[in-house]
Design brief:
about 220 residues, alpha+beta, Ribosomal Protein S8, Chain: A, domain 1, Sulfite Reductase Hemoprotein, domain 1, 2 domains, five-stranded mixed beta sheet, about 30% helix, about 25% strand, binds iron/sulfur cluster
Length: about 220
């Protein structure tokens, strides 16, 4: 079963694969952490903590992939080609800079929207203050706590090749309004996005005003 794996390298026909079990919002139980380590060791794999708050098991052989997934008994991070594939949450509840304990909101967003299919790959960042340690401004959607403890939402950030600065969509909102806004942004993306198109490129194509107008009319 190579479906939930990535080809990591192919040197003279010697292929090795990487897999990433889903770790909800970067929180993992000690038992699951030990299990991942033991299974990686059993199959000669290595571990890598990646930038998406997940752990990858690397250097696996193709013939071991099915057994590894079976023994892990965990869902994969990526289940569809185009989906909401990551929600990163900063450590706001444990941080002295925080203006609001936003981990709970991040978990609500994760549980409500993680994995939904979209026109392109998308990420959300949730930050407890404007420092945005998890780079919310370069995510497709950023949910950030302002200096006054209220939330604001950014849209259309793109990192990597052809980066794009996010637009501020709405400010001075509360948790419930933030959840509703995230839902509406994702609906808008599904309605107008072309296959493979990033949300930021959709906004560049149709204009931020159109998105604002549609959201405000709800
Ligand atoms: S974004 Fe702000 S609240 Fe969150 S970890 Fe960074 S400094 Fe702390």
């Amino acid at each position: 079963m190579t479906k939930y794996s990535r080809l990591q390298k192919d040197i003279n026909g010697k292929k090795r694969y990487t897999i990433s079990p889903y770790i909800e919002a970067g929180f993992i139980t000690p038992d699951n952490l030990i299990k991942i380590g033991e299974i990686a060791k059993k199959y000669g794999g290595g571990l890598r903590i990646n930038s998406t708050q997940n752990i990858s098991i690397i250097n696996l052989k193709e013939e071991d992939l099915e057994s590894v997934w079976k023994e892990l008994d965990m869902k994969p991070v990526i289940r569809h080609k185009y989906a909401l594939k990551n929600i990163e949450i900063c450590s706001s509840n444990f941080c002295r800079m925080s203006k609001y304990p936003s981990i709970g909101l991040g978990m609500k967003i994760t549980r409500q929207f993680y994995g939904i299919e979209l026109p392109g790959k998308a990420k959300i960042g949730v930050s407890g203050c404007k420092n945005s340690c998890i780079s919310a401004y370069s995510k497709d959607i950023g949910v950030v706590v302002d200096g006054n403890g209220k939330l604001f939402i950014t849209v259309g950030g793109i990192a990597g090749l052809n980066p794009r600065s996010a637009n501020i969509l709405v400010e001075n909102i509360n948790e419930d309004e933030a959840l509703e806004t995230v839902k509406n942004i994702l609906s808008y993306y599904n309605k107008y996005g072309k296959s493979g198109e990033k949300l930021g490129n959709l906004i560049a194509r149709l204009g931020i005003e159109k998105l604002k107008k549609e959201l405000l009319s709800k």
